[in-house]
Amino acid sequence: MKVAITSSGKELTSLPDKRFGRCNCFVIYDTESDSVEVVDNPSRDYNEGAGPAAMQLIASKGSGKIITRHLGGKAALVAKQLGIEMTPLDDRQRSVEEVIQMIKQNS
């Protein structure tokens, strides 16, 4: 399964972004191939509709799950329609790489 993690930067040492639709980029981790893809989030600068547009983007990349701190109502609706599962991120400060390690441990 591909898991999209909201990220504040393009490096695995970056912190996860608390926002979904306006995050800087997504780090997409493939649990089957153990590979990582970094995808810019062009919707971060939208005046409105950033969440649904970002959800469409990660769906187009084959993600079946999103890990983020907050998912807005419109984005959550699109996620439900697309069958994308949402896992909330807690308040602990950890890097995207540490989130990936947690995914590996829970697989």
UniProtKB/TrEMBL annotation:
Gene3D superfamilies according to UniProt: Dinitrogenase iron-molybdenum cofactor biosynthesis domain
Residue span, Dinitrogenase iron-molybdenum cofactor biosynthesis domain: 16-104
Highest taxon of source: Bacteria
InterPro entries: Di-Nase_FeMo-co_biosynth (IPR003731), DiNase_FeMo-co_biosyn_sf (IPR036105)
SUPFAM superfamilies to which the protein is assigned, alphabetical: Nitrogenase accessory factor-like
Name the UniProt record assigns to this protein: Dinitrogenase iron-molybdenum cofactor biosynthesis domain-containing protein
Native organism: Fermentimonas caenicola
